[in-house]
Amino acid sequence: MLKKPISRRDLLRMAGVGGAGLLFGASGMGGVWAAAEKSVSASVAKETGKSSNGEFVDFYGKHQAGITTPAQDFLVFAAFDLTTESLADVKKLFQTWTKASAAMAEGHMIGEANDNVNMPPSDTGEAAGLTPSRTTITFGVGASFFDSRYGLAAKKPAPLADLPPFGGDELREEWSGGDIGVQVNANDLQIAFHAIRNLARLARGKAVLRWTQEGFQRTGGADPSGATPRNLMGFKDGTNNPDTSDDSVMNKVVWASASDGAGWMEGGTYMVVRRIRIRVEVWDRSTLGDQEATFGRHRASGAPLGGSQEHDAPDFDKLDEKGKPVIPVNAHMRLARGDGSIQILRRSYSYSSGMDHKMGQLDAGLLFICFNRDTSKQFTPMQKKLGQNDLLNEYIVHVGSAQFACFPGVREGGYIGETLF
Amino acid sequence: MLKKPISRRDLLRMAGVGGAGLLFGASGMGGVWAAAEKSVSASVAKETGKSSNGEFVDFYGKHQAGITTPAQDFLVFAAFDLTTESLADVKKLFQTWTKASAAMAEGHMIGEANDNVNMPPSDTGEAAGLTPSRTTITFGVGASFFDSRYGLAAKKPAPLADLPPFGGDELREEWSGGDIGVQVNANDLQIAFHAIRNLARLARGKAVLRWTQEGFQRTGGADPSGATPRNLMGFKDGTNNPDTSDDSVMNKVVWASASDGAGWMEGGTYMVVRRIRIRVEVWDRSTLGDQEATFGRHRASGAPLGGSQEHDAPDFDKLDEKGKPVIPVNAHMRLARGDGSIQILRRSYSYSSGMDHKMGQLDAGLLFICFNRDTSKQFTPMQKKLGQNDLLNEYIVHVGSAQFACFPGVREGGYIGETLF
């Protein structure tokens, strides 16, 4: 969107026109990896303009990608803790991460030492030859980032205050917190894993992984209709999300403004991450009627109870023959919507992490992720209400929690976090 | 392949010709789920004959699907332990599972009670509206299935003997064993999860989950060239697999014969499952030269050391300028190949399961799965050699192990395990 000199990314986009030779010359990569690069560019060229795995999402821009850009099929989320005490090191880390992330978003290997037998390869290699697959990498910093270590306490934005305890929380340290949060999405799980692993490698000596979580939704390829995906409770999830193509809505709901208090957050946003375990076995024993009352929606169509189409407006006043609201007062959808004045942008993924051997049950659920302009005014009051009354609470438990201030986007030549440091 | 009366599956295949109306009439599903079914059949119709997520793999046949059929992108593996003491119950379980598996392979919901508000839904719903995505479900039974409980001890096939301890084993109960093993593969992770979850529900009162593991490889859609996928060490994995399209090779390497001793295993095979953790951080610190020496292959091309193309024949006699073998004597590829007389069919998936918080490291690696006609003559001697000498042992540890006798295929109207009971 920004005007800028021709870049590798432009070349990548033009590969269908300019041909592969131009691309390889510009990419600075030759030799033994050429075949792999070739297959990438061939696919990109072939699929230009189509919504497909060959598609590429610009790492650079006014806002970070992975927030209002369309959701991909897979997630690998990682929280890092810094081990360095030096702000210069932190800055260097974000500079290194920026360069690597831009390369990975393009489907390139990172670094220059991938053919030198005497050195550890710069890139771990498992994504070589794969197409960009719409990879996005989104960075944020947690409240602990603003403690005494780096002299940034005064710059901590007010919305990054610790989340209060909510009803239904059974939070565990192993899925909570972190100095830095990194959300990687792609239409290929191997590519998303590769990104987190290589960011962790680049952080060596400066930061270590604190926790990670893989996630998925139905793959786009399998469902060409682009319908609202279903969560692991079998219900459509995300029906009532605000319209990401409407800038005025996004400015109100998602994007922080300098006028909110923290100038460096202009164009950034706040990300809340909650690891929500579903009590799968309990849910699966409940009747369809109970399940639909819990969500306030019909399972098959996704329509509000009493409606017939997914996007029908819910009729909260409608009563059944016994005089009770058709959409129960404690239905999840009703409580989450409230009076409609508070919105958040949800971008969640289902997860399945083997078994919880203590319980003998599947450890599966939702890695809830949302973005909002001010968590204390959006997510927190919404979740307070849900934590107290939501019918869903019988079937879920929040086992992890974190919040991150996601930086504004960065233009080519800059780096993530630049406005803060 | 077998001649048989026209079936729902035939109708599904014919959807592109005969139209959706016919299909819906025959499927016995109407009402609120019709829209979801419609989108499935439309995709199937559209994509008939192409290798895509709309494609459907027949659950029925001479052999079980998921063995010599092309590998999909995702895996959810589950081991079950039986809780019933009744052979009749076990038989009933396999009959129920057969019917459900055939429906899920077709992309249908299971059961009849999906619209009845007074009952728990038969199907958990998260795969509704998704295409079949080449789902395969493959069943086997472990050695413990033949203990005293069901009076089947005399039918235990000799190749199902317990695996001996191997060098490098650090096996953990939570990823080992099981009375029953179920491998679900699909080009959609949500569909694979759905299958295991619903099989577990159907087993209630008869069997419980013992352990599960999700797996992935690069998605087919992202890499249209169909190249050999790379494992998480960055190397191509599966280059030297035997040709699954060659029946005589498969009869020698994979398919058990009644003449092997167990008549009920005719057309079945033995599946070995090993959860192999990669010491990612150690691997990532080693030089490219060490990595290539470890596998005996070039990382970029997958060629044997000294060769230039992935499928070049390895030259084990070639010496370097110091007079040492170019492919080290303890290289993984060299030891696994041996004199070439022993082969197995590998069908492994990478896994990433968050972090091992004790170690502060990624819990990632390979869910190694192989099929062979007689484990004691194929996998076991091969692994014994690898466990003792493989250069790879420095970087991996086997943390889980299981073996299952996979039943022969079943024809429509029959059920999995029928030849045994």
Produce a short descriptive summary.
The structure is a homodimer of 421-residue chains. Chain A has 421 residues and is of the alpha+beta class.
Structure explained in plain terms:
The structure is a homodimer of 421-residue chains. With 421 residues, chain A is of the alpha+beta class. Helices cover 25% and strands 18% of the residues of chain A. Chain A has helices at 8-18, 20-27, 34-47, 87-105, 189-202, 247-253, 280-285, 288-295, 332-337, 379-389; strands at 74-82, 136-141, 180-186, 207-216, 269-278, 345-346, 349-356, 361-372, 396-406. In chain A, strands 1, 2, 3, 4, 5, 6, 7, 8 and 9 form a nine-stranded antiparallel sheet that branches. In chain A, a hairpin with a 4-residue loop joins strand 7 and strand 8. In chain A, helix 1 (8-18) crosses helix 3 and helix 4 runs antiparallel to helix 5 (189-202). The interface between A and B is large, with 87 and 87 residues.
Q: How far is the first residue's CA from the last residue's CA of chain A?
A: 25 Å
Major interchain interface with per-chain residue totals = A-B, 87 and 87 residues
- Low-confidence parts of chain A lasting 5 or more residues at pLDDT below 50? 1-31, 38-51
Number of strands of chain A: 9
Task: Set down the secondary structure blueprint.
Two copies of one chain form a homodimer.
Chain A: H1 8-18, H2 20-27, H3 34-47, E1 74-82, H4 87-105, E2 136-141, E3 180-186, H5 189-202, E4 207-216, H6 247-253, E5 269-278, H7 280-285, H8 288-295, H9 332-337, E6 345-346, E7 349-356, E8 361-372, H10 379-389, E9 396-406
Antiparallel strand pairs in A: 1-3, 1-4, 2-3, 2-9, 5-8, 5-9, 6-8, 7-8
Helix pairs in contact in A: 1-2, 1-3, 4-5
